[in-house]
Amino acid sequence: MLNVKKVLFLLLLPLLAIGCFKASKSRLGEWMQDDGKIKILSTTAQVGDLVAAVGGDRVSNWVLIQGELDPHSYEIVKGDGEKLARADLIFYNGLGLEHGAGLSSQLKGTHKAIALGERIQEAYPERILLREDAVDPHIWMDISLWKEAVPSIIEELSSLDPEGTSEYCERGEALMLQMDEAHLALIEKMRKIPSEKRYLVTSHDAFHYFARCYLANPGEKSWEDRFAAPEGLAPDGQLSPVDIQGIIDYLRAHKISVVFPESNVSRDSIRKIASAGREMGVEIEICSEPLYGDSMSHLSYLEMMRQNGDVIARHLALENDCEGALEE
Ligand SMILES: [Zn+2]
Prior knowledge:
Order of helices and strands: HEHEHEHEHEEHHHEHEHEHEH
Bound molecules: zinc ion
Distance between the termini: 40 Å
Number of helices: 12
Strand order of the largest sheet: 2-1-3-4
CATH architecture of the largest domain: 3-Layer(aba) Sandwich
CATH superfamily of the largest domain: Nitrogenase molybdenum iron protein domain
CATH topology of the largest domain: Rossmann fold
CATH class of the largest domain: Alpha Beta
Number of strands: 10
Structural class: alpha/beta
Strand content: 5-15%
Helix content: 40-55%
Largest sheet: 4 strands, parallel
């Protein structure tokens, strides 16, 4: 017998999708209007989350690169010019993340755009990673490093809106405390996985900061070996047979058999690896749950980091029969 509620829900789905699109358009319409609040444009959701937490109801924040879009290759589309012009202040990740030519030149060409990554690099150059002579822009994957973006947000908002300074400071400090707690909880969770099993393979090169911070042991010199990915810093590279072989050798060397897809990256690469592995008699499982690297879907920034830790712990633990890492 047909479930009437289910049928009604399926019939309503297209209307719901149109509704969501309209809601998003009308939220953008509201953001473009003059409502007495400071207009902030954040390029990514990871940036936008911090800005919204510090700014509270004194600011009106809009995220330019939404949903599952790839921030590395994002290019300006119709309407973006107006958003960039409308914003009183623009915050972006920087360190080469937003490298689409049009967007990159717009960001670099205006004094009102603040590169949070460059600010962090200036203050803590030794904490920024280089990959094959390019700066690794995925700094949000280490919560303790991403936290260092908060003082710049407080400073910039306060300079634009001096009356709100005490509010920005208060909210920023509370956010930093929350980030400290989440950082320590994630370290604790990952350390429950035995050290010899703490090796990670994902779709693209987003997890080096994560590996250094959460997979390696304190002071570990060979921490770089904790993570491997078939695709380079941007998820639009081409996968060569040498790359595939490299990942299979890595999996074999560390006796791991699970690879993790990322929510906004095509699974083609890891499927190729799994199939090449099978041909060589190496069993490789593609994890059923994706990790969040460049995009965070509907999650908040801290939820995204927590979710990544849970998925990694759950699947490495299942694989290795390690009950401790499964505990909440
Ligand atoms: Zn990336």
